[in-house]
Amino acid sequence: MTTEIKVPQLPESVTDATLVTWHKRAGDAVRRDESLAELETDKVVLEVPAPADGVLSSIEVESGATVTSGQRLAVLEPGAENSAPADVEPAEATGPDTAAVASDSPAPDGTGRERLGPAVRRLVEEHDLDPTEIRGTGRDGRITKADVLDYMQASSGPAEIDDEDVAVPAAPAGGPSSSRVEQRVPMSRLRARIAERLVDAQRTAAMLTTFNEVDMSAVQALRADYKQAFEQRHGVKLGFMSFFVKAAVEALRRFPVLNASLDGNDIVYHEYFDIGVAVSTDRGLMVPIVRDVDLKTYAQVEAEIADFGARARTGEIGIEELTGGTFTITNGGIFGSMMSTPILNPPQSGILGMHNIQDRPVVVADGIEARPMMYIALTYDHRLVDGREAVQFLVTVKEQIEDPARLLLQV
Question: What domain range is 39 assigned to?
Fold first, then answer.
């Protein structure tokens, strides 16, 4: 019986998607639940699974096309492999963006490709790599995009570069040769959406940023004393982010307008704490949400953040995990940033920016000591939040971090 392959139902806030690539060609045999194609929305990459066993008899939408919920992409029929007409070239069926060669066997064959994230699998297939030869450094040994790129770099050498593959411009008379190369690539949907939201935030919100600095000595000492026991007990490393997430929750309790959003002329106060933690990926910035942070332990917060980070970078994070946050924390310090002014994540009214920790001279008890210091920044919507509340919010975060006992006692 003929089966139509359709675009899955997109989330309510997403109107369309881009068909990024096909993993199969017309005439290929497929297995039920095997990934046939990837769709990219303005938030995540979605996979289109095969609804049944069969043969992909025709592909009706090329890579790069914009599609909507329920749109027919291809037709699946029962039968043997390679039943497509002989005069149909794969490039005509799949579109110019598809460089992958489908596996000879649709079933899991021990290569591990069925466990790869969409972005990683695309890279592996495009370069015809064997995943079993690539060492994975991701969570539970998963292969990340960085692992694939490192493997390709280590495997390549000068002997593999053919002169025909490199266009060398002729040297101008009287001088050495020079190459001025440009490359034009379209924005991904995620990058385009990020650009749109950032411009929209600057246009609609009255953003203002206030700063403070935090002495990280107490938290560093606490981590040094308990990080090994913490990891042995909970199976996850104790980082700085859980302290800042918990400190932010206490500050949000005291200044709830920073846990609110503007809806027309109404201020919506959220009486729960769903904290977005910004994660940088190859595709752009993602902000997965740690929900009900106030009800979770430090170990649960650290585990969720680590899991979100790993899955965001491999393209496996779900769209429902990126929506509905009430406040955001971003850490530019992991890239070496000393100070920045983070941009709001609409419709939220505040975002906390963490930065690099650096030893600086600080006056302590009439003396000067070198202390590990971090600048922190709060960007807020001045339409909702007054400067007094923003400053006191940061002071609260500072007090909680500099004296972690306050976090336990909520004082």
Answer: 1-106
